[in-house]
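Please annotate the following for my students:
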Amino acid sequence: MEIILLIYVTVIGVVIGSFLNVCIYRIPKEENIAYPPSHCGSCGKRLTAVDLVPVFSWLFLKGKCRYCGSKISPRYAIVESLTGLTFALLYNKFGISVDLLCSAFLMSILIAVFFIDIDHRIIPDELVVAGLVAGGITIIYNAFFPMKIFGEGGKWWDPILGMFAGSVTLLVVGLIGMLIYKTDDAMGGGDIKIFAPIGIFLGWKMTFIALLASIVLAGLISLILVIIKVKGRKSTIPFGPFIVMGTLITYLYGWDILKWYVSSLLF
C-alpha cells in the first residue's frame, strides 16, 4: 500500500510539473497560462494528448515535435521529473497529510521560480501572490489544527511571524549591500517578496533555517563556479534557485539542522 501511494503522489507531481512548464514559459511573457491550449512553439500545431504525456512523450518522440521535427528542450522532461521527485521526497517526509499538501503546493511555485529566475532574472509577482493566498488559508487552518512543520508546541502566530522573518531580514541585507557596494540591486525585490509566502508555510524558525541554507548554498556554488571559471568574480548569479534549494532542504531536514545547531551551542 505504501509503495502504491508513493507512486501515486509521484505521478501527480509529474503531471503538475507539466503544468509548471506552461507557467515557466508563459508567465514571464505575460501570456495566459490556460489559453491558447498547448502547441508547438515552432510550427504552432496544437498538441494532442499523445504529445502531452509527461516525460514519456519527450522520450518517445526523441525530443522532437511530431509535426515539424523541431527540437524540444529537454528541460520539459527535467521539470516534470524534478517535480515528481520533489513530491516523492515530501511524501516520504510527511505522508498523506495537510503538511504534504502545503509543502507540495509551495515547492510547485518555487520550482517555477527556479527556472524563471535562471532565464529572466525575475520572480513574477503572480507566483508570490499565489503563495500568499494559499498561505492565508494555511494561517487559518493552523490556528485550529496545528501543523507538523511548525514543530511541537508551535503557536498559531508562527506562520504570521514567519511571513516577515525572511523578507525583512533580506530587506535589511539588501539595504546594507546598497550602502556598501553603492548599487541599487544588491538584493532583488523578487527574492525579498518570495520569502513572504515561504515564511508563512515554514514558520519563523524554519524560515531562518531556509534563509541560512540558501545563503550557504549560494556562497558554495558561486565559489565553485568561479574556481572552474564558469563565472567571474564580478558576475551576478540569481539568488532565487538557491532559495528554492534551501527551502526544500529545510522541509526535509530543517528541524534536524536546528536541533544539531542548538546542541552544538550547548556542548
Observations:
- The chain has a mean pLDDT of 89.
- Residues 97-267 form one domain.
- The chain has eight helices and no strands.
- The chain has two domains: 1-95, 97-267.
